[in-house]
Amino acid sequence: MIEKVVEKIVEIVEVEKIVEVTKPCLKCLESCKHCEEKDKKINDLEELKEKLLFDVKYVKESYDVLNRTVDGLNKTSLEVDVVVTMMSSTLMTKQNVINEYIEDCAKLKLDLELEKIENERIKRLLMSYTAF
Questions:
Q1: What is the DSSP letter of 29?
Q2: To bridge 24 with a disulfide, which of 35, 71, 106, 125 should be the other Cys (CB 3.0-4.6 Å)?
Q3: What angle do CA 128, 130, 132 make, to 5 degrees?
Q4: Which residues contact 55 (CB under 8 A, 6 or more apart)?
Q5: Cα–Cα distance measured from residue 96 to residue 104, given in angstroms and rounded to the nearest whole number
Q6: Residue 45 to residues 16, 18, 55, 100: CA-CA distances in angstroms?
Q7: From residue 95, how far is each of 88, 90, 92, 101, 114 by CA, in Å?
């Protein structure tokens, strides 16, 4: 699309050079067929020039809108990155706390089992003493 616009702009520059050369001749007092063809060509080139200028303005406006959209998306992307980083650190913190609770539970279970074993040993000793 941009290449076409550039080609059209180059054509406009060439057209302006042609317009200077193709002005009606000064020899003819009345317009001749050759001069009418030149006038028609000049008018066609002027119309093409206006269309190209309109296309260039449209492309520039579209580019500006696209540029604003890209800037907005970049800003949103940066905000999302910050939020993801914060959530990641929060997740790691919570995971560490959960791991500590799991380790504490495991220690308490071990202590409970040791106490049960000790309780069972004492119970057997008590039974053996009562048997004497």
A1: S
A2: 35
A3: 75
A4: 5, 8
A5: 12
A6: 9, 9, 15, 81
A7: 10, 8, 5, 10, 29
* Rounded Cα gap, residues 18 and 110, in angstroms: 98
For residue 31, CA distances in Å to 37, 43, 87 come to 10, 15, 81
What's the pTM? 0.48
Residue pair 42/19 in contact (Cβ under 8 Å)? The answer is: yes
Q: Give the whole-angstrom CA distance, residue 30 versus residue 24.
A: 10
Residue carrying structure tokens 């000064």: 26
7-56 tens-digit pLDDT:
666 666 565 555 444 455 555 555 666 777 888 888 899 899 899 989 99
The Cα–Cα gap between 22 and 14 comes to 12
Alpha carbons 61 and 76: distance in angstroms, whole number: 23
